[in-house]
Write a structure and sequence with these properties.
The complex is a heterodimer of chains A (164) and B (662). Chain A has eight helices and no strands. Chain A is 73% helix and 0% strand. The radius of gyration of chain A is 31 Å and the shape is rod-shaped. Chain A folds into two domains: 107 residues, Helicase, Ruva Protein, domain 3 (Orthogonal Bundle), CATH 1.10.8.640; 53 residues, no CATH class. By secondary structure, chain A is mainly alpha-helical. The N terminus of chain A is likely disordered. In chain A, helix 1 crosses helix 4. Chain B has 662 residues and is an alpha+beta fold. In chain B, 62% of the residues lie in helices and 11% in strands. In chain B, strand 3 and strand 4 form a beta hairpin. The termini of chain B are far apart. In chain B, 56% of the residues are buried. The C terminus of chain B is likely disordered. Classes of the chains: A mainly alpha (164), B alpha+beta (662). The interface between A and B is large, with 54 and 66 residues.
Chain lengths: 164, 662
Amino acid sequence: MKRLFAKLAAILAFGLYLNATPALASSATEAALAADPVAEKRLTKLSEELRCLVCQNQNIADSNAELAQDLRREIRGMIKEGKSDKEIIDFMVARYGDFVLYRPPVQGNTLLLWVGPIALLIFGLSALIAYQRRRAARVAAEDKPLSADEASRADALLKELDNK
Amino acid sequence: MIPELGHFALILSALVALILGTLPLIGAHTNRMAWVAVARPAATAMALLVTFSFACLTQAFVANDFSVVYVAQHSNSLLPIQYRIAGVWGGHEGSLLLWILMLTWWAFLVAMLSRQLPEAMVARVLGTLGLVGFGFLLFILLTSNPFERLLPAAAEGRDLNPLLQDPGLVIHPPLLYMGYVGFSVAFAFAIAALLSGKLDAAWARWSRPWTMAAWIFLTLGIAMGSWWAYYELGWGGWWFWDPVENASFMPWLIGTALIHSLAVTEKRGSFKNWTVLLAISAFSLSLLGTFLVRSGVLTSVHAFATDPRRGIFILIFLVAVIGSSLALFAARAPKVGLGGRFGLVSRESLLLTNNVLLVVACATVLLGTLYPLLIDALGVGKISVGPPYFNAVFVPVMTPILFLMGVGPFARWKEASIPEIAKAVKWALVVGALVAIVLPLLYGQWHAMTALGLLLAAWIVATAILNFVERVRHTRAGRGFVATALSQPRTFVGMHLAHIGIAVFVVGVTMVGSYQDEKDIKLAPGQSVDVAGYHFTFNGVKAVEGPNYVAAQGDFDLAVDGKFVRKMNPEKRNYHSSAMPMTEASIDAGFLRDVYVSLGEPIDRDKPEGEWAVRVYYKPFVDWIWGGCVLMSLGGLIAMLDRRYRVRARAAAPVSAGAQQA
C-alpha cells in the first residue's frame, strides 16, 4: 500500500507539474531534470510526505495550488544542487514547522502517536490473555464439579488437618 | 408553501420521535401494554413525516425554488435533473436530513419485520431509535434548517460543487448513510437488551441480520466512495486516509468485529458484554464521524459546515448518547452470565483475537485522526498525520488478522487442537507460498511486500476452499457431493464468500501497488505513447458542450499489438459556475487491468490544438479492490438471508444445533 502511495505521488507530482505549470514544463532545465527518472522519483517521494499548507488536506504532490507548485520547483532545485533528502526535509521544517510533514517526526509531542499503536497492540493482546485466564478460572469455579483427582487431594488435605 | 409544509412535517416528526422515545420505553418498564403498543404506529408516523419532508425539499430542488437558501446554495437551473435530486444531499443541511431519513426508515423496517419479537423488546428497540431520531431532528431544526427562506429570492442558484456532479453522488451518500445509521439498530437492540436485562442468544439472533445489513451498506458505501475518488479525482488513487474516510472506516472495523462477536454470542452464549460494548461503540463511532465531519473541526474536503453551534450541539449529543449507554452498560454488565467455557485454542478464542486486533486497528486509526486535533488544542504543537503514518502502522496490525482468517473456520468451538488445524491447512500454506513465489516472478519483479500480500490472499482462498470441501465431506450422509455442497447453511457459504472477497481485495491492493505503471508526457496530435504494452495515439482535442459546462475532449486510439482496440475520450471540463477545471478520466476497465487516460492542460493555453499534458496509467487488478468489497457484501447478504433468521425465534434457541452450523 505504501508503494501505491509512492507511485501515486509520483504520478501526481509530475502530472500536476505538467498540468499546472505549462510555462515551467517548457523550460529547458526543468525538462532536463524531469527527464532524470532518479531525481524525479526523489521529488515525488519527498513531495508525497509534505503537506500543502494552503490546501484542505493534500500533499504538495497532489495539489494544484501555487504554493505546491513553488515548493515542488524548490525541491527540484535543491535536488539539482545535490542536497540530501534529510537536508531538504529539514529546510521545509525550518521554514514551515512540523505541520508540513505528513509523517510526523518522532519527538516529545508525537511520542504517544508513534508508540500508541504498538502499545495498543501489546495492551490488547495482554488483556486478551489475562481475560482468558480469569475467565477460565471463573467458569471452572462456577460450574465445574471437583475432578476425581481434586477430590482425592481435598480429602488428603482434610485428613492431614484431622491428623494434626 | 411546499417548503413550509416540509418544515412543519419535520417539526411534527420531532414531536412524534419524542413520543416514540418516551412512552414505549416507560410502558415496557412498567408493563403498560397500551404504551408499548404506541411504538409501531409512532415509528411509522415518524418515517412518513420525515419522508414527506424530504420529498418537499426534493421538490424545491426539482422546481428550482431559489427562494430556499439551501437550494440557492446547492443548485442551479442548468443542473441536470438527476443532480438536482441528488443535490438534496450535496450540502450540510440536506445530508443531515438524509441521515434522519435513513434512521426513520430503519426504524420503520424494524417495526414491520419484527412480528416474531416480544412486544416489550420491540418497544425498547423502537424507543431507543426514537430518542436518537429526536436528538437529530432537534439538531436539524435548531441549527441546520434546510427549509430556510431567502427573501428576496435569488434569480439563479450558485450551483452544486462540480466535483459532486457525478453518478457517484447519487449512490455513494445514501449507501454510506444506510450503513452508518444502520448501526443504530444494532445499538438499539443492545440498549433494549440491557434495559430488559435479557442478554441472551435470542437477542444476538435478532440483532445479527440487522447488524449484517448495516455492515453490507457500509461496505458498499465505502467501496463506492473509493471508486468514485478513483475515476473522478483524476489521480488514479483509491484511498487517501482523509479524516472523513477514516470516520467511515472506523465504524466498519468495529462493525466487522461486531458481526463476528455476535456469532459467538448467538451460538455459544459467550462474550455478551463484549458484544454489547461493540454495538455501542460502532454506533458511537458513527456519531463521532458525524461530529467530526459536521462540526468542521477537521480540515477536509468533505467538511461543508463550520458553524460552531453545530459542533457544540453534536458534541453534547455525542456525550449524552455515549455517556448514558455506557452508564447503563456499567450498571447491567456485572450481572450478565459468562456463557460456555472454552479453551485457549478454540473458535471462541480465535474470534476474540480477531476482535481485539480489529479494535486495535480501529483505535490506531482513531489515534491518528484525533492526535493532531488534540495536541493543537493543548497548544503543544501543530502536526499533520497522513498516509505515510497510517500505512506504517496499519499494515502490521492487519497482517495477523488476515492470517487468522484462514485458521478460524477450522477451529472447533470450545476446544481445538493446533496439530489438527495445522494438518488441515498445510496444503493452503503450500499453495500460498507457491503463489507468493511464482506470481511476482511472472510479473517480472519480486518484492517481499508483494509476496506477503499474495501469500495472504492465496492462503485465505485456499483455506476457504479446503474448509468448504471438508465440511461437505462430513455432512454428506450418503448424498452426492454437489447436492451436499448446495445445501450448506447460508451463513457458512456467506462467511467464506466474504472472506474470499477480502482476499480479492488484498490481491487488488497488492498488485496495483506493486506493478502499476504510468507515463506523464506532452503529446501533440498524431504522437503516441506506450505504457505496459498499451499503445495510445493522440488525435487531438475538440470542444464539447455539456448542459452546464464546456469541455475539451481528447481523442485517443488505444491499440494492443498493433491492433485497434477502442477510442478513449478523457475530458477537461470547465463548469460555468466554477473556476476550477474538472478532470474526467477515460478508463478501459478489464478483469486483469485498467488502462486509464487523463487529460492535463494544453502546454500553451492559447493553442489547444497543439501539445497537451497527458497521463496514462496501467493499473493491474485495480478493479479487484472494489470487486472484493462487492463479494464481501454479497457474502454478508447470503449469510443474512439464512433460513434460521426467518423462522419464528424459539423461546430457547438450541445452542448445540447452532454450534454445528459453523
